[in-house]
Amino acid sequence: MQLSPAPAALDGPAPIRGGRSVLLVATLILTVVAFQLNSSMISPALPDIAKQLGAPMDAVSQVSSLFFLAGAVGGIVLARWSDFIGRKRALLVVLALIVLGTVLCLVSPNLPVLLLGRVLQGASSAAFQISYVILAETLPAAVFPTVLGILTAINGGVGGVDGWIGGLLADAFGFRSLFVVILAVAVIAIVSVALAVPRDGEPSSTGRMDWWGAAALSLGLICLTYFVSTGSGQGWFAPLTLLFLAGTVVALLAFVAIEKRRRTPLVAVQHLRSRQVWPVIAVTVLTLSSVFAVINFTIVILSQNQAVGYGVNASTSALLYLTPPALIGLAAAPLSGWLAGRFGWIRMLRLGLVLSIAALVVVALFPFSPWTVFAMFAVLGVAYNGVVLTTTNGLGVLQSPSEAPAILPSMNGAAFGFGASLGIAIVAPFVMSGDFVLALWISVGISVLALIASLFLMPKTD
Fold it and tell me: Is 240:258 a contact under the CB 8 Å cutoff?
């Protein structure tokens, strides 16, 4: 059984068309670009950050992992909050966080201040999920899949140009120059949202935002991430590892208890148990933990490694291994959305996962062959950036409970940030020790689990 070709229009005002819709889509693209630049543009600059701030590379890996962990927390809280305060208002809050975090990164004298800025930037990941819901609430249902694909393509990088420019700027002017670009884009996005996004009407959810539930779930996600990263680095039975495990269990049990007592819960427990919801979240977490970590971390570090890697500089690394999958994904994502709308979102998701696994297996078999990796990353541009990211984001909107449209998009947004952070945390110890082959095979295994999780997914029937 598959989902209908296009989403039914969400309850609300009549869809907007013509020039207003074009302006809205352009504004939402700029908004998600402002967030995405903080992800893909920074990856090639990690070695320069370590050099300029005098920090070890394993500590600098937190520049990425903390960013995505904050995205896991901020994505679910801010996207769900938009059900109560309105989409436009929430987008402006998100962009304000980007500006504040970017300023901190720009002036940071040391790694701790930089990491604080990255946390604020990461918390703005709700830009994607809020934008997806705005599309579903304002555009005609027939054009939703294709436009969703356009926004989703940016989730894998801004056509690959951002990663390449990030490498060039890092090589020529140092990592701080990247944050100057990000700040300028974020300020322009704030002005555009203020002018182009429709005014907020009646809130989608009545009642109050569940801040206690948000705090408990956030604490659980943080403890879970550090449990995995600490276990990988210090051992699974180390005292600190077990402490994080205990924190995860306590926080998540508290979250369930809180949600059962709330009139307007952050996430209703019955939705989390539904096969319409949890497989979407599981696939997103596992896919990001595998494919994203390979593209944006393992191969980036391997390609710049002078001893066993390819020995290229940051800009060349970005041009060869970040630009192609992102550029190909930019073209493939709208087509993937169109195909999913006609042949089934779940069917297309599984196809993308199978192709992604096949490409990762080849990379793991031939990791020290630069052009083999290059070719497989081109395949991932279609399979992962194009098909998987489009269908997981589309399912996040389509499968969400009707009484709370932002619940599953916000959970899926958290899954994106959490999955990316978790994947880097899992493979970082092996990458930093030079065991790139093992890191890649771990990512292959995680991607197989994503395919298995997709087999449990059932389409929404109401």
Answer: no
